Amino acid sequence: MMSAVPNLLLRRIRVAKERFLPFLRPADDNEALLRRHLREGELYGLFRNKREPVSMAVVADVSASFAAGGREAGLAPALEGLRVCECTLLATAPAFRGQGCGTQLLMRLCGLYDSTCDAMIVGTGDTPRMRRFYESRCGFRPCFRRAGFFLHGYPQPLIEEGVQLRDMLVFCRFLRFRGGTGA
Ligand SMILES: CC(C)(COP(=O)(O)OP(=O)(O)OC[C@H]1O[C@@H](n2cnc3c(N)ncnc32)[C@H](O)[C@@H]1OP(=O)(O)O)[C@@H](O)C(=O)NCCC(=O)NCCS
Question: 8-174, which class in CATH?
Answer without folding.
Answer: alpha beta
